[in-house]
Amino acid sequence: MYLLAEEGEEPVTVYEYGVRDCATVFFYTTVAIVLHGMVQEHILDRINRRLHLSKAKHGKFNESGQLVIFFLLLFLGGVYILSFEEFTTQPSSLWEGYPHNTMSGSVKFFFICQLAYWVHALPELHFQKTKKEDLSRLLLHITLYLLHISAAYLLNLTRLGFVLLVVHYFVELIFHVCRIFFLIDEDYQRGFDVWAVLFVLGRLMTLTMSVLTIGFGLARSDNRRLDIATGNFNTLPIRVCCLTVVCLGQAWMMWKFINFQLRRWREYILWHANKKKQLAPRPKRELGCENGSPRIGGAIVNGKRGKSL
Prior knowledge:
Layout: E1 2-4, E2 12-14, H1 21-51, H2 55-82, H3 105-127, H4 132-154, H5 158-184, H6 190-217, H7 236-279, E3 289-290, E4 293-294, E5 300-301, E6 304-305
Antiparallel strand pairs: 1-2, 3-4, 5-6
């Protein structure tokens, strides 16, 4: 913690990361576990009992319910913090003045909460009795979050990481809200169309801001050697690694997104074809037939031959 002050202004308290952050993350991890249990017991379980969801939908509903609350709180908190920071009014501040080895208390708390939440998600896989088929997907999901957040925090890219997290959490919030409505009513599809547009825009914004900040902005003040003492990691190999991780991550997300949309499209085509079959008029019976029995040499009444006319 430091106090910074310019001439004629009051001192401002800023923070930097250190080893003691591990203890802080551990403390908020236990808080997150307690809050997770309270939300599950007092909110999600009560809703599940009223909706009478199947076992297959029960786990997905709990997952989306927890993430909706988490994403909503952090998105609102991120927007509130952005209103006081200069990230939005001066985009060049994302790379100018690097290394950004100090941060305000609110930004530091935001990152601590991110790390604590995704660390707490690991033991929750055991507490929630996650199915084996979902375990690998959730582990990969949690690992990617911890990797990206930790890299932005430790490499002093907190400004860029903060903005990208707020954008990403907003898109994920819309998806999980739509997923909850879909689990309640499978005919609900409109929200996914809105999410699809926001998802593509979010990926484009992430790539644009990452390339602009890391590829062009930081390249102007390139360092030939790594300076860990001052927290300056602005070297060519590290910038290439960061851009590679970001681009591969966005490409993987787009690949999953395209597969998801193709699956939705195939299901819609199949549903539409089945609906046409149900609404199609029945074919007329052949002339001279009644009750499916042919007329041969006389009238058929109740399946018996009558007198010919």
